[in-house]
Amino acid sequence: MTAEFNGTIKLDVRDSVADWGPYERPKAPEGAPNVLVILYDDTGMASWSPYGGRINMPTLDRLAANGLTYTQWHTTALCSPTRSTFLTGRNHHVNGMGNIMEGTNGFPGLSGHIPESCATIGQVLQKNGYSTFWVGKNHNVPEEDVSTGGSKEQWPLAMGFDRFYGFLGGETNNWYPDLAEDNHFIEPPYTPEEGYHLSKDLADQTIRLIRDQNASNPSKPWYTWFCPGANHAPHHAPKEYIDRYKGAFDDGYDAYREWVLARMIERGIVPADTALTPINPMPEDHANAADYVKPWDTLSDDEKRLFARMAEVFAGFSEYTDVQIGRIIDYLEDSGQLDNTLIFYCADNGASGEGSPDGSVNENKFFNGFPDDLKENLDKIGVLGGPETYNHYPTGWATAFSTPFQMFKRYSQFSGGTCDPMVIHWPAGITAKGEIRHQYHHSTDIVATILDVIGIEMPSVFRGVEQRPLDGVSMKYSFDAEPDGPTAKKVQYYAMLGTRGVWKDGWKAAAIHAPLTGHGRFDEDRWELYHVDVDRSESKDLAAEHPEKLQELIDAWFEEAEKNNVLPLDDRSARDQLTIERPQSEPARTRYIYYPDTTAVAESVAVNVRGRSYKIIADVILEEGAEGVLFAHGSRFGGHALFIKDNTLNYVYNFLGIPPEQTFTSGGLTPGKHALGVEFIRDGAGEHGESLGTAKLYVDDQVVAEGPMRAQVGKFTLAGDGLCVGFDSGDSVSGQYSGGFPFTGGKLLGVGVDVSEEQYLDLELEALAALARE
Question: Where are its TM segments located (predicted)?
Fold first, then answer.
């Protein structure tokens, strides 16, 4: 609310008295710390060196040695939901984030729209004298708004952040990222050949933002949310970092679990009597086959070699990113800011099982419901982690890096999905150094902690809207508490993709239900009971011994579900959830016209050719030597492109990056005006749901090449590599060209795409007429 003007206003300014009070910017409380939140992706607690893991994290080790390491800090088991709790301090369903943004649907807890009753930490700190920066992953913008012309209401700048530099989707290619700065999309500042990697770029930009702020407002504290692409797939890292781990994982994931548990016990991360849980704990009739772990001793020598290398790549990715973060920490120390900077260094959910039992050189297969192929993976072993792959390790490593718990990311009922690393560092405010804290906490508690430390409260009314109270509790009491002192947390529900559980006063109930199976029948779920205070790994089911306690917790889950908009539960497949039709700002249509000299169109709002027949027609005037991309959508890991090369028209459909590229090529082209296009006629579905049919390549009204083709029914990418006209952004669809291959040697008027049942030749005449009017 604006302060009242208390000056005096007369006809003449000389007789008036000014009052600047209502217009002065608020100042942060005296001595308020800077805040740096570092949020990795997809990282189990047993991965990193401070917890006994085999992955060296020099920066995190440094912060842990001078700060606090938490052993029972939890998340929602999935990225968008957890990140929403970091934004608002409310439970994920209250934020409308009961799923990732690509899986939202039309229910209050799953809408993908943060309500105005949940003001963000950025908005509150802006109103209290802070500069606010968000760098790296977002994944909290509604999918239909991830576009140049989409609403910016839930982009970072509208959510309380002065500056943003990063990517809006759930993942991105670390060599060719899909970048946005503030409210617009940008291209990466340089190329992989010139030394580009996203982790390095994000660290550079973070240092720049803080340095620029200090140059103009050195007394003003700042809040920075740093969210690298690591450790989400694709696992990309410089080869020198990958090679540091050569042979480090040759003993396999089963042996790693035994080894790391002993180290965790030795370091006091878990109690001495903590038991190791089975690698495949889900009953066969409930399990998701894609989450199965192959016992290491059943693998072939080739499989062992491949899987070990995939772990080496992941480790190199994690350490390389930590080293880049170290550059930020060094800058803060050199500039005298480190002591009074409150740092949270953590991860958003457990290790990822999205690589299937065999691992993957293209994680997008998981989202398309298409199996990985061992031979294809082995063929890429020498380039894993480089631009040639979109790789992910197998489920065995997800289990290993989530030791000693059951399962991994997506399984919200087990700590394998939710118990994550968390180190807090604040020399000016924490006297304890290098200590461990065992209090039970959750990602909803971070906002409450930050506000408590600064000495401000979440407003009861913000911008005229009554606010929902915070669901989290402050962790500040634990900074100088006894390591095993009681927690301030009383109850925390969990629910994700059909999985569910609840923790209350040291006990936990978990429903036995796997995500993304489509099993349904939630009323038939069997619940297990664990006394987490004495059984940290949740290995002993006490449901039969304590039926009353189990029922108490089941009742508590339903009570929390009612209060937090959790229902309905949804365990449908990834492909089903990712292809839900959502409201768009543009009216539904079957014909799209795109023009050159425009930014790539995000897949969320581009024409959807998946699982259907389609026609693409480019209207061009060719000169001698004309060449380049006319139309492209996707990347080498899934996409299609229409281009001219060596005076021939070519259409390539790159099906999930599986070689060879499906290529259709014309004879020689002549100068002049032409309609160049392709038609795909879908005949049916293949074994894994992929579209099967016939492609026909056209030059004007003549079919110049045709043949069988298969096409994806899932997304080309989870994010990035949008639809382009006149060039190919980011990572090229086809290996037959590079560097964007912009169209030259003539004039490209536009490209029409049609997904109706109309005949190609009828559409050709209509498209040419429409483009001619432009």
Answer: none
Count of other CB atoms within 10 angstroms of residue 339: 14
Cis (ω within 30 of 0) for the bond into 29?
no
Last residue of a domain, one of 503, 535, 551: 503
For 244-287, how does the pLDDT look when each residue is reduced to its tens digit (9 = 90+)? 999 999 999 999 999 999 999 999 999 999 999 999 999 999 99
Which residues in 269-280 are b (16+ Cβ under 10 Å) and which e?
bbeeebebbebb
Both structure tokens of 249? 């994982």
Name the pairing type of β-strands 691-699 and 507-511: unpaired
With contact defined as beta carbons under 8 Å apart, do 631 and 610 qualify? no
Vertex 724, ends 360 and 602: CA angle to 5°?
65
741: domain CATH number is: 2.60.120.200
Instruction: Give the type of residue at 769.
Output: A
Among the candidates 503, 531, 562, a domain finishes at 503
Question: Residue 143: is its pLDDT beyond 90?
Answer: no
End-to-end CA, the chain: 49
2 falls within a domain? no
Type of residue numbered 587 = P
In angstroms, the CA 166 to CA 181 distance is 7
Tell whether 306 and 163 lie within a shared domain.
yes
Nearest to 390 by CA among 313, 277, 476: 313
User: Which residues, 6+ apart, have CB-to-CB distance to 216 below 8 Å?
Assistant: none
Confidence class of residue 762 from pLDDT cuts 50, 70 and 90? low
Answer whether 709's CB lies under 8 Å from 653's CB: yes
Both 94 and 195 in one domain: the answer is yes
Listed in order, strand segments (DSSP E) in 498-573 are: 499-504, 507-511, 527-531
Q: How far is CA 689 from CA 327, 649, 686, in A?
A: 46, 29, 5
> 407: domain range?
34-503
Percentages (nearest 5) of helix, strand, coil residues in the chain: 25, 25, 50
- d(CA 504, CA 506) in angstroms, rounded, equals 6
